[in-house]
Amino acid sequence: MAIARDFRDPKETRPGLGRLLLAMLLAIAAVVVVAFEHGYHEPLLHAAILEAGQLFLPWLSLVVAGDIHWRRASRTRWSNPVGVVGECGLAAAALTGIMGLHGPAELLSVAAAVTMALRLNSQLARSISNPSLLFPASFLGLITVSTFLLKLPSATPDEQPINWVDAAFTATSAVCVTGLAVRDTATGFTPFGQAVIAASIQLGGLGVMIFGSTLALLFGARLSFRENVTLSMALDEYPAHRITRFAWFIVLVTLGLEAIGALILYVTWPAELIRPGDHRLWLAVFHSISAFCNAGFDITGESLIGLRAHGAPYFAIVPLIIIGGLGFIVLEDFHRLIMRRHGRRRVPRLSTHTRLVLATTAALLILGFVVILIAQARAAGQFTGQHVLDALFMSTTARTAGFTSMPMDELTPGSRFMLMLLMSVGGSPGSTAGGMKTTVFAVLVLSIISTVRGRDEVEAFGRALPDGLVKRAGTIAFGLVGVVSLAALALDLTETIRFEPLLFEVISAATTTGLSLGATDDLTPAGRIIIVATMFLGRVGPLALLASLVGMHAPIDYRLPRDTVSLG
After folding, report:
1. Could you give the 3-state DSSP secondary structure of residue 540?
2. pLDDT for position 535
3. E strands present in 314-456
4. Which of 180, 152, 243 is nearest to 508 (CA)?
5. Tally of CB atoms within 10 A around 423
6. How much is the pTM?
7. Residues pairing with 304 in the sheet
């Protein structure tokens, strides 16, 4: 393919940032033309004009970016005079209505937009002084695109148009894999709108930069050192020299596990729960993506309550939530262990990170299960097998997945408090989950234990953890508390709802969980905007956002005199 060959040519003179921005705008215009054709119940312009725009704008975008150049006509079939004449001929044919080029024209528009986005991302990573800004900017860009797509008339039923605030709320919730919703995803969106939400969940869960970098690698490009460093920041400072292989691992594992989950759900989904107009395959695919990405969106209309008496939520969705919440660093550690065990090299031990994640995850699951089981059984006055299944599922989903297998108003105050604690901890680093992260919680607990035991160092599995790591853990935890506190106080000023549901809502948004006590639908526009900002901060991370805004600082080469203060 000519685009791929030009894209990876190391001798090619790179276009400037201004040219790439102009090319990106032209590619976006081509996608907008596609939206004009399919986003409205009746096309805004004549079909021939729309198809001509879908052909001409991508071609012009590639010309501006330098992918098609008159002087390199002999190097690529896209840029020779015959190719250019053919391209113009196709546009003219579509304009006069001689040919109907629906599929190729739309594919060309999307391909041009993706190509320009990759080129622009690469150029920005090389050009700007603080490449870590690309991490929050990529999420903000995806939220913007998703908002416009959800605002299209074809994304919602005719009788239920969506306003801009609700479209932005839904897009942010999907991209930030939260799951809070101001309208029922099953009935408030058309199949096109549901597909936009599913794609936003997938891209938000993978990480826009990870997906884009992997796609660039697929086209044959090589990531620069600065791009590797930027991706390393997006992946909780994963070693930059291994980032290319790790990006491939993330995409392949995600798609593979989601495919397995979708297959299990397709086979086990009860036929009596498939409503008229629903498709078993789409139900399986959507909920598999939502479960692995810990998003919590559903298209059943009642989360997973209808599946309460069936095995599907427990044999497919629970493992997907747990595996998705462990993090790709842990999964890669297991993969490396399995590969070396079947090879001739010495079998390594699991890393301290993996062991800490597994131990903390198991402890939180057991603690949540026991507390919720006792609280619910005590309130019911009896102990049943359904209480066991509900406690297991709610303990799992509270770790930022957001599904529920029981009505939230059946939860006791003790169960709700336990859910808030589990939501606050969340999943693990390098995963699709939110929260302060299991390792942060574990490091803080180990720090307390070390202080009580009079140890100078924080220890974990026979290893001493650096002081800087402990400080960072405290900063992350304090940042989460700060975001929750400020958002809860702001909502208390704008809403008339009781404070407990508001606090639950804020914790759910800040930890990208998606559980709700029913406050979401009753929020005012101002309250919804506050939740949107909270979800964005929860996904990007307040510490990462501050670091990207402030920039990197060189370490100081001096030390100040030491002193002490009283701590009580």
Report:
1. helix
2. 94
3. none
4. 180
5. 27
6. 0.83
7. 302
Tokens coding 456: 């100078």
* Residue 459 β-bridge partners: 464
Q: What is the mean pLDDT of each run of 10 residues along the chain (568 residues)?
A: 40 62 80 77 71 76 64 43 46 48 62 69 65 76 90 90 95 93 92 91 74 48 53 54 72 90 91 83 93 91 83 81 88 83 65 92 95 91 84 90 88 94 90 88 94 88 88 90 95 93 95 91 94 92 62 66 78
Spacing of C-alpha 446 from chain mean position: 30
CB–CB of 35/63 below 8 Å?
no
- CA dihedral 382→384→388→394, nearest 10 degrees, is -70
CA distance linking residue 20 with residue 16, whole number of Å: 6
pLDDT for the residue numbered 86? 44
What's the CA gap between 141 and 137, in Å, rounded? 6
Displacement of CA 568 from its chain's centroid (Å): 43
CB-based contact 426:438 (threshold 8 Å): yes
- The token pair that represents 251 in the structure block: 């995409």
Report how far Cα 311 is from the mean position of its chain's Cα atoms: 27
List the chain domain ranges: 1-127
Distance CA 520, CA 564 (A): 47
Classify residue 111 by burial, with Cβ atoms within 10 Å: 0-12, 13-18, 19+. Answer: middle
Q: DSSP states of 115-166 as a string?
A: HHHHHHHHHHHHHSS-GGGHHHHHHHHHHHHHHHHHHSGGGS-TTS---HHH
pLDDT of residue 151: 92
Amino acid (one-letter) located at 111: A
Classify strands 463-465 and 458-460 as parallel, antiparallel or unpaired: antiparallel
pLDDT at 5: 38
Helix axes 385-397, 413-425, angle to 10 degrees: 30
CB 56 within 8 A of CB 91: yes
